[in-house]
Amino acid sequence: MGKGSNQSVSGILSRSFLYLMLFFLVVPGTILTVASYRRQLKYVSANIQIIAEKTALRFDGFISTRLQILKNTAWIADIASLSVQDQVEMLSRLLGHVEALQQAAFLDREGNLEGRFSLLDSTGSQHLTEYLQAQGKNLMNLRESLVGEVHIDRSTNEPHVAAAVPVFDVFGDFQGVLVAELSLRFMWEFIGQVLIENGGYAYIVDSKGRLLAHPDLTRALAAENVSGLPIVADFLRYGEDQTGTDERYIGINGVPVVGKYYPVTATDWAVVTEIPWDRSFSPILRQVLFSAGIIILAALTAVLIGILLSRRITVPLDHLTGMVTRISGGEEDLRADLHGPREVSLLAAAFNSMTEQLNLVLRRLENRIQEIRRNEVSLREANTRMQVLIDHSPIAVVLQNREGIIELWSKAAESIYGWKSGEVLGKELPVIPPGELGSYKIFFREIVEGKDKVINREFQSLRKDGTRIWVNVSVAPLVDSSGDVYGIMNLVSDISEQKMAREQIVSSLREKEVLLREIHHRVKNNMQIISSMLSLQEDSIDDRIMKDVFQAGQQRIQSMGLIHEQLYMSDDFSRIDFSRYVESLSQYLLQSFDQDTAGIHFVADIASVALSIETAVPCGLIINELLTNSMKHAFRGRKERNIWIEMKENPDNSIALTIGDNGVGLPSDEASGKRSSLGLVLVRELVLQLHGSLEYRSEPGAVFRIVFPLDPASKSA
């Protein structure tokens, strides 16, 4: 049962009302609280920022005013041109009229001390002397006002600071430096009078993080270093680029605060204002407490309402629960009470209908179980028959899963490879030679990934004793109902004997090819010998007619010898590339009639046709006779000499051979067929042998067109 099965309806309803109530109260309350906090934070930050800015401007004005008085006095009185006594008198009047000035001195352009006057005793005036000695060389390069570090006067225990202004004459030339010491008692008094609501306060720090002024004077007298405070660290890091943080931090008095700072531009100081966080946000805290009280009260109310509502529903539901328990115990014919709220009555009616349907489903399920049991018996019988077929099959059956692990190894596999099934089941296939293991894994992966379906291949495999055998393997993927490959089936048969027989047949064929090639070569050589003998006999004959007869015979023999030469050089001894043969024959004839063929332009357009030797020999003799006739008789008294030969294959699987020239043509009696030379008689006989037809026309010249079937042997049959 699920996790929620032990939860009561009353508990669920109570929690539901509680969650709804909390959601509609907590979310708006949280949003209002956050908005109020942000408004209060913005107000507090703006207030203390304004106070810090006003305080800083007050100090900035105090110091800037006195620096300007020093500049104006030095320039108006032209202090550099006065005598030392007059300088002292002028400085005494200046200190008497300007508040906070304690002592002053003038240094000429070489850094020599001239006039000096002090309102302090010798102990108090010692600091100015030390300052002049420490800053002497730096002051001679001074071109803008300079305010030094704050120190506590030993005689008065008040903060003092040295300030220096450069002195220029009316021409703008540097004449010296006027140095004065200011009392910052005003700063201590004013910082203690800064009023910030909710217990806020202000203090001043310098560029090193030291405390210059604080409402607690003892901390200022100690020059406490407060650079570790986040607000002071921000001032030391960013200066005028930032004015503070809106985040809560532990302030200078050790309590959580919100702080801001503002720099004093005339110096490298900053005024920091802080306000305690709890006092600033006390209205927000009161609002949060009030909201929490309302939420608690609403939560209790929601729980009470949930309990009251659940009582009206839980009693009928308990009755239904008892019915379910009894049915699960084996009672079937039970009906629920339909009294109660409308929803519960509907639920009870649905429950009764469900029990009826459940009884029907149970009866159907029992029938289905009996059918499954009968199917299991049939399946076991089928598996038994299949196992008998596998065990007695002469073809080995090997099953592998997706990882290549053997799951079935038939008895035929044991006979072929020598391994027993117990030695290989659960292991990878052991029959792959080591050098071919990588390629086999690629092949296996392609089968498993479905790149190939059924593959029939021949492999060289290893037996258990290490010998190699040739096997024919049919590999097929095993696919489940979803189309995924879960393994492969290998059907293996030993073809070592067939492989050896096949290799013997191939070897015998190669020997016969060599013998046939040698026969063609010898026939070609014998014809060459006969042609040479006729040539020798021709040289001993003076009769021109007999010479022509011998020459014609020699050419006919050479035309047949060229065919055997082409067959000897060809890879296919049953067919000859006729275009190459015509090219060789025409070159031979042109060379045979060396003088008579001068100026003849020969054009051959022979399609790529392969002819059998039965067709090539008569066809070659025809071409020999017609080309010889044209070279001998066609061009008497003619300058333009053209001979062409064209051979192409027709759509009806016949060959069209056309041989022509632009010569004088055949005599009229030969053209009409009343008289024929031996060559034409031979041509007609050869055409009949090819089962073809011969056509002659004059265009002018002699043009012979011969059409014959591609395979005359089939024609005669």
Q: Keywords, please?
A:
elongated, alpha+beta, 717 residues, five-stranded antiparallel β-sheet, 19 helices
What does this protein look like?
The chain has about 725 residues and is an alpha+beta fold. Strands 2-1-5-4-3 form a five-stranded antiparallel sheet, with helices on both faces. Strand 3 and strand 4 (about 160-170) form a beta hairpin. Helix 13 packs antiparallel against helix 14 (about 545-570). The chain is elongated and about 165 Å long.
Question: What's the SSE blueprint?
Answer:
Layout: H1 9-77, H2 84-97, E1 101-108, E2 113-118, H3 122-140, E3 146-152, E4 159-168, E5 174-183, H4 185-193, E6 201-205, E7 211-213, H5 217-221, H6 230-238, E8 244-250, E9 256-264, E10 269-276, H7 277-280, H8 282-328, H9 342-392, E11 396-401, E12 406-409, H10 411-417, H11 421-424, H12 437-448, E13 455-462, E14 468-479, E15 485-494, H13 496-539, H14 544-569, E16 575-577, H15 578-592, E17 600-606, E18 610-612, H16 613-633, E19 641-649, E20 654-661, H17 668-672, H18 678-689, E21 693-697, E22 703-709, H19 712-716
Parallel strand pairs: 17-19
Antiparallel strand pairs: 1-2, 1-5, 3-4, 4-5, 6-7, 6-10, 8-9, 9-10, 11-12, 11-15, 13-14, 14-15, 16-18, 19-20, 20-22, 21-22
Helix pairs in contact: 1-8, 13-14, 14-15, 14-16, 15-16, 16-18
* Helix residue percentage: 40-55%
Q: What's the gyration radius in Å?
A: 62 Å
Rounded mean pLDDT is: 77
Strand percentage, roughly?
15-25%
Which geometry do the CA atoms define? elongated
Total of DSSP H or I helical runs spanning 4+ residues: 19
Low-pLDDT ranges:
1-5, 713-717
Q: How would you sum up the major sheet? A: 5 strands, antiparallel
Q: How many runs of DSSP E, i.e. beta strands?
A: 22
Strand order of the largest sheet: 2-1-5-4-3
Structural class: alpha+beta
Question: In angstroms, what separates the terminal alpha carbons?
Answer: 90 Å
* Quaternary structure state of the chains depicted: single chain
